């Protein structure tokens, strides 16, 4: 979750420089980016797998012929084309396919929402600290360090265990509120390096408000960086949610990929060889998160020519 | 350097106070009388036990006192090592449960963290800008680091323990063996330890290998590396310098990843019914044994803070700039 992000983003792409490389008659920077994006195998692979999984998450539930939590199928039946039990059934006769696509949807929701909230807080804290500096920076930095040191997963455990009804929204919000610190720290450093440049000084002289300067002058210059940060937070949120769900703190009244794994382990699916129950959920998470990470490296290479494979 | 340490210690102290405060306030923030809610959820047949438990909870929560006094007593009992009593394993204390479970978790975590960090960095550094090796290490690393810990544990358990029966399915040791300092028992411990250790090791290995590989590529493209190359320095020397520079963010990353691998250890233990903290916390969650959950949380906080401090010291040793006060290492 967090071991990859800080190092992967340690030395960011320098977009202003990239634009300058175009010389006197520059190819439009968008066209250039698209050109290199299509030529980057990692990026193409990452986007294809992610989009495929996303489509599966959207279309899948429409194809499922049974409700995710409904009983009634044969008990522990292997995958079959009969009656729509394509992924087989659980020990209690529930439709694994239906549970799987339902979980897939929840994974994308948690990723988008949790990752989005974390990115929002990270931007707010990082930009403010980097732009203001001084006491504001000291205080925000202290806050960032404290949240960074707290093992947030353990914190989530305690909070979630006291909630009687747990929803996917609350889960995402909690994940978002605990996973922003590394992003804030990285953005703060980025903002610091941009704040002292001429174009920012010029914008200040024009008397624009700070937030306008941050969002019109500073943020666009690290847009690629922000996007990559969001991708990593997205993947991280999916992994955290799966872990929480597996430990028995998943959302009530629905089923996620993590909960599928928990129930399969609890019901001795391993000993009974019900592989169709416990293989798909983990494989799906691995595919989504892995392709997001690969996409991230691909983007890094597209935006930062130095990193491209020789 | 002293300033650096004081700053760090201040952050850790603040974190600890905050964590304890959260731990204390969560039951108080929930609506209703937590004791009645707790009692309502545990079905106890024996009225005598129920009464005893009720009295115990009232005392433990100090609900009749003003809030600040409740908070104060929470700290006092914390410093006496009193974290309350388990409901599920009544009347054993939470502290004794932790003391019995923690060695298993630490025995998994510490080797997994250190070995995966070491091996991942070595392999990642080797793979960077070496086409053939990179083509295997990169996809494998990404696949591993994107794998949920419990799923890898499930896969290892299913293939190596259930299908091929090379390793035991679960538990910390052979229950028929007599416990003690005998070779047979230590062997049994190691035999049961291997699979949970491997699942932790492999997932974090992937992350470190990828991280190091990417860092080395950044370093090899930096000015000093090009300058060395232009001077005619051998590739091996340039890589050596690149490795030493890439090491620093990896040490910082080690501190950042502690929470993640810890979560991984908890769920891995659940898959293998390994009798550590994860297994205890899982039982506590499914049985709503709140004192155990909260106690383990505090134990984890203390453990992570201590580990962070040790990593800070390591950073000081590795990066001479922090010692001369040129910069605050670890990005504080």
Q: What brief labels describe this structure?
A:
heterodimer; A: 310 residues; mainly alpha; MetI-like fold; 70% helix; 0% strand; disordered N terminus; B: 332 residues; disordered C terminus
List the helices and strands and how they pair.
The complex is a heterodimer of chains A (310) and B (332).
Chain A (H helix, E strand, L loop, with lengths): L3 H5 L6 H6 L8 H11 L1 H23 L32 H37 L1 H16 L2 H11 L5 H11 L2 H15 L2 H8 L4 H9 L4 H27 L7 H10 L8 H29 L7
Helix pairs in contact in A: 4-5, 4-14, 5-6, 5-8, 5-9, 5-12, 5-14, 6-9, 7-8, 10-11, 12-13, 12-14, 13-14
Chain B lengths: L1 H28 L4 H8 L5 H15 L5 H13 L14 H34 L3 H15 L3 H15 L19 H38 L2 H8 L4 H38 L4 H10 L3 H29 L1 H4 L9
Helix pairs in contact in B: 1-12, 5-6, 5-8, 5-10, 5-12, 6-8, 7-8, 7-10, 8-10, 10-11, 10-12, 11-12
Task: Describe, in plain words, how this protein is organized in 3D.
The complex is a heterodimer of chains A (310) and B (332). With 310 residues, chain A is mainly alpha-helical. Chain A contains 14 helices and no strands. In chain A, helix 5 (96-132) packs across helix 12, helix 5 (96-132) packs parallel to helix 14 (275-303) and helix 10 (198-205) runs antiparallel to helix 11. Chain B is an all-alpha fold and 332 residues long. The longest helix of chain B has 38 residues, at 183-220. At the A-B interface, helix 1, helix 6, helix 7, helix 9 and helix 12 of A face helix 1, helix 6, helix 7, helix 8 and helix 10 of B.
Runs of chain A in which pLDDT lies below 50 for 5 or more consecutive residues are 1-25
Strand content of chain A: under 5%
**Which geometry of chain A do the CA atoms define?**
globular
For this structure, the quaternary state is: heterodimer
Mean pLDDT of chain A: 85
The total of helices of chain A stands at 14
Total beta strands of chain A: 0
Question: First CA to last CA of chain B: what distance?
Answer: 13 Å
Main β-sheet description of chain A: none
């Amino acid at each position: 979750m967090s071991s990859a992000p800080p190092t992967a983003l340690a030395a960011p792409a320098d977009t202003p420089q990239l634009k300058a490389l175009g010389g006197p008659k520059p190819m439009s920077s968008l066209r250039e980016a698209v050109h290199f994006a299509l030529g980057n195998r990692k990026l193409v692979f990452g986007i294809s797998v992610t989009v495929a999984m996303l489509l599966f998450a959207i279309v899948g539930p429409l194809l499922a012929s049974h409700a995710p939590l409904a009983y009634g199928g044969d008990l522990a039946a292997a995958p079959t084309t009969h009656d729509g039990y394509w992924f087989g059934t659980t020990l209690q006769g529930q439709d694994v396919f239906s549970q799987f696509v339902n979980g897939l949807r929840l994974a994308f929701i948690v990723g988008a929402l949790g990752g989005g909230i974390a990115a929002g807080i990270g931007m707010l804290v990082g930009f403010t600290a980097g732009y203001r500096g001084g006491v504001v920076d000291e205080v925000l930095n202290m806050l960032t360090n404290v949240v960074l040191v707290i093992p947030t997963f353990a914190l989530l455990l305690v909070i979630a265990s006291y909630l009687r009804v747990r929803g996917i929204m609350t889960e995402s919000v909690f994940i978002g509120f605990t996973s922003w610190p590394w992003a804030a720290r990285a953005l703060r450093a980025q903002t610091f390096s941009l704040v002292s440049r001429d174009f920012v000084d010029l914008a200040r002289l024009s008397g624009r408000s700070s937030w306008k300067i941050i969002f019109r002058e500073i943020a666009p210059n690290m847009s690629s960086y922000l996007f990559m940060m969001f991708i990593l937070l997205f993947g991280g949120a999916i992994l955290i949610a799966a872990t929480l769900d597996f430990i028995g703190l998943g959302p009530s009244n629905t089923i996620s990929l993590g909960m599928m794994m928990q129930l399969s382990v609890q019901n001795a699916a391993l000993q009974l060889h019900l592989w169709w129950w416990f293989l798909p959920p983990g494989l799906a998470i691995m595919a989504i998160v892995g392709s997001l990470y690969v996409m991230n490296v691909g983007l890094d290479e597209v935006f930062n020519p130095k990193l491209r494979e020789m | 350097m002293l300033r650096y340490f004081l700053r760090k210690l201040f952050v850790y102290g603040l974190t600890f106070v905050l964590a304890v405060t959260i731990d204390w306030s969560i039951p108080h923030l929930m609506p209703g009388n937590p004791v009645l809610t707790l009692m309502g959820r545990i079905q106890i047949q024996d009225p005598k036990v129920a009464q005893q438990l009720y009295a115990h909870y009232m005392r433990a929560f100090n609900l009749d006192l003003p809030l600040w006094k409740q908070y104060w007593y929470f700290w006092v009992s914390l410093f006496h090592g009193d974290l309350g009593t388990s409901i599920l394993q009544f009347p054993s204390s939470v502290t004794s449960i932790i003391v019995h479970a923690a060695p298993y978790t630490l025995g998994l975590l510490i080797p997994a963290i250190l070995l995966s960090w070491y091996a991942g960095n070595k392999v990642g550094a080797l793979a960077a800008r070496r086409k053939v090796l990179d083509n295997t290490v990169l996809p494998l690393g990404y696949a591993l680091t994107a794998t949920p810990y419990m799923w890898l544990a499930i896969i290892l358990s299913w293939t190596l323990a259930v299908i091929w029966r090379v390793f035991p399915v679960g538990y910390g040791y052979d229950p028929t063996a007599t416990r003690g300092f005998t070779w047979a028992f230590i062997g049994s411990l190691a035999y049961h330890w291997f699979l949970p250790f491997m699942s932790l090791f492999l997932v974090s290995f992937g992350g470190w290998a990828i991280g190091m590989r990417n860092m080395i590529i950044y370093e090899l493209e930096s000015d000093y590396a090009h300058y060395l190359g232009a001077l005619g320095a051998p590739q091996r020397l340039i890589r050596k310098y690149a490795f030493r520079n890439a090491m620093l963010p990896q040490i910082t990353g080690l501190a950042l990843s502690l929470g993640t691998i810890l979560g991984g250890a908890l769920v891995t233990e659940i898959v293998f019914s390994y009798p550590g903290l994860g297994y205890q916390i899982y039982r506590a969650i499914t049985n709503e044994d709140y004192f155990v959950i909260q106690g383990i949380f505090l134990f984890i906080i203390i453990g992570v803070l201590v580990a962070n401090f040790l990593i800070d010291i390591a950073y000081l040793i590795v990066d001479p700039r922090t010692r001369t006060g040129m910069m605050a290492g670890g990005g504080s």
